[in-house]
Amino acid sequence: MNRRHFLAAGAALPFLARGAAAASGNFEITRTKSEWKAMLSAAEYRVMREEGTERAFSSPLDKENRTGTFLCKGCDLPLYSSKTKFDSGTGWPSFWQALPNAIGTKRDRKLFVVRTECHCRRCGSHLGHIFDDGPQPTGKRHCINGVSMTFRPA
Q: Is residue 72 annotated as a catalytic residue, yes or no?
């Protein structure tokens, strides 16, 4: 098992990935807890607002290969272009770069290593994590929960 698969397996442990709140701060779009719960499914709420992780290989967006844009499910902000998507083999949609001014980041120490969490810069919804084992030109792997996004074909 390589480092990427070890981290992917660890991220899938639901008892380690629950309980934190979505990114805190001043966001352009804010909603109450009840408003978020009304607009999101239980799985979407757990991932986007409680920083959970969806089960690997469960998102249809992992195999989405059409040309288009991936948007935040919480506020429709364009996050990632299909031009930067790649198959990481981890079971989550992966990208080597976000669109300009699309995401925010913070340190995440929930697992046994320090990771970089990423969230929507407009509504604070949790998206996933960024790792240093992606392809060039950035060398980054944005490992994103599919339930945090929608896809708009070009």
A: no
